[in-house]
Amino acid sequence: MTHVVEFPVWGTTAVLAVTDHPADAERLLRAVLDDFDLACSRFRSDSEISRLHASAGRAVRVGPVLAEALSVALRAARLTDGLVDPTVGAAVRALGYDRDFAAITDTAGDPLVPQPVPGWHRVLLDVERGEVVLPRGVELDLGATAKALAADRAARAISSTLDCGALVSLGGDVAMAGEVPPGGWRVALADDHRTAVLAPQAVVTVRHGGLATSSTTQRTWQRAGRTQHHIVDPRTGLAAEVVWRTATVAAASCVDANTAATAAVVLGHAAPAWLAEHGLPARLVSASGEVRAVAGWPAERERQVA
What is the C-alpha separation between 120 and 49, in angstroms, rounded? Predict the structure, then answer.
């Protein structure tokens, strides 16, 4: 029997499915989320990342959660040649995403001044010593990888601690670990994860690894007479051109899946070739609603992706 728990978190929704021990699993998930929020939230003045910004220009000791989150973010930047870059913080803020998403108001008349993205290579991280040097003027935003990392860590912690199967979805970033229920985990896909179960655009069966969807239709607002979204193209400092309104990718982990899905949105027309080159099965939905399956992603009539 599969038990499902759902609750709001970080302006989105956490969904937990386990084969046993749902109450204990929920406590473990909430503990992981609390740890990540305190380490990585750029909207909390008491978070580690906020203190890191305040200490720019000198070496700062950071805790293990932020150290891992930074390491993962820098790896994502390296693997995508900078398409997924954690130094987009100032650019995201300039677009208007400078507070919890629920508190953002439309500012149609405000001028839009693109902020250059300094580049991930400027962040110095010593993992062994747990030290970071963030140059002055560099702002971090770990949104492209930290949520997926939290899903991966929570799924593994629940599975190993409680000896059960676990699926953790954080706003459409899905991680799995441990025992697989009969028939596999069924995951509903849609532009909006909140409506996916009741009105799915596709349903896939997965057994391991991670699945992530990046969308330009959610977390949108008006700025300078244009609709803005939260995925920044580091090459321009602006919201990525909407060639694909959603990109869903299957990979070995949720972090890898979300890294690739974000890169696909940034790449636009070049995304299918890039995903195929890296052997990453993906479902791309164009701005007009056309579905394109890439690199072995099953046709819409098929079910299993991993």
Answer: 15
Select from 262, 235, 259 the least CA-distant residue to 115: 235
> Which domain does 93 fall in, by range?
47-133
pLDDT of residue 98: 59
Q: Give a yes or no: residue 180 inside a domain.
A: no
Return the exposure string of 65-101: e unless at least 16 CB atoms fall within 10 Å of the residue's CB, then b.
bbbbbbebbbbbbeebebbbbbbbbbbbebbbbeeee
> Is it the case that residue 135 has pLDDT exceeding 90?
yes
Cβ–Cβ < 8 Å for 237, 122: no
Residues found in the chain:
306
- For the chain, the domain total comes to 1
Question: What pLDDT score does 34 carry?
Answer: 98
Domain of 77, CATH number, reads: 1.10.3980.10
Residue 107 predicted with pLDDT over 70: no
Q: What is the pLDDT of residues 209-235, one digit of tens each?
A: 999 999 887 766 666 667 666 789 999
Cβ(164)–Cβ(21) below 8 Å = yes
For residue 93, being part of any structural domain is answered with: yes
Nearest to 303 by CA among 158, 231, 206, 213: 206
Residues 189-211 have a mean pLDDT of 79
Quick one: what percent of the chain has pLDDT higher than 90? 73
In a domain, 241, yes or no: no
